[in-house]
Amino acid sequence: MRRQDIVKQTSLEVITNTGENFLSKWIKACSTKELEKGEMLDFDHDDKKILLANLNGKIYATDRICTHADADLSGGILSDEGVTCPLHLSTFNLKTGVPQNLPAEIPLKTYNVKIEQNEIYVEVE
Ligand code: FES
């Protein structure tokens, strides 16, 4: 067995040991009542600045700072296409984080979201 194969097996064991990646953490962000349809909310955890958005009843979480020039996307516009940066108007797809138009070219980081007992949780690692 090559060294590369051993490394791969070890990291696979780490992930599957508990049934999921135990390095991730679910953090409670807010209640579902605080994020109605068409609204966005900012949420900070440690050094992460996260944007929560309720687009047509589905909750998304992405990094909140635009990848182009540091604008805060919570001051942007939410639409069916995603969130549009208030500074130079790039629109980011909330599911993938991918910018749909220039000048931004780098995708936003996206986070898994779950709702339990009317509370919204974001998975951070
Ligand atoms: S800062 Fe967001 S598109 Fe330029």
Largest sheet: 4 strands, antiparallel
Bound molecules: FE2/S2 (inorganic) cluster
Strand content: 35-45%
User: In angstroms, what separates the terminal alpha carbons?
Assistant: 31 Å
**CATH class descriptor:** Mainly Beta
User: Topology as H/E string?
Assistant: HEEEEEEEEEE
The stretches of 5 or more residues where confidence is low (pLDDT under 50) are: 1-18
Shape: globular
Q: How many discrete structural domains?
A: 1
Keywords:
single chain, 125 residues, 3-stranded antiparallel beta sheet, 11% helix, disordered N terminus, binds FE2/S2 (inorganic) cluster
Descriptive notes:
By secondary structure, this protein is mainly beta. The chain has a single domain, classed as Rieske [2Fe-2S] iron-sulphur domain (Rieske Iron-sulfur Protein, 3-layer Sandwich), CATH 2.102.10. 11% of the residues lie in helices and 38% in strands. It has one helix and ten strands, in the order H-E-E-E-E-E-E-E-E-E-E. The strands form three sheets. A four-stranded antiparallel beta sheet has the order 2-3-4-8, with no helix packed on it. Strand 2 and strand 3 form a beta hairpin. The two termini are 31 Å apart. 23% of the residues are buried. The model is unreliable at 1-18 (pLDDT under 50). Bound molecules: FE2/S2 (inorganic) cluster. FE2/S2 (inorganic) cluster binds at residues 66, 68-69, 71, 85, 87-88, 90, 103-104. Residues 66, 68-69, 71, 85, 87-88, 90, 103-104 line the site of FE2/S2 (inorganic) cluster (FES).
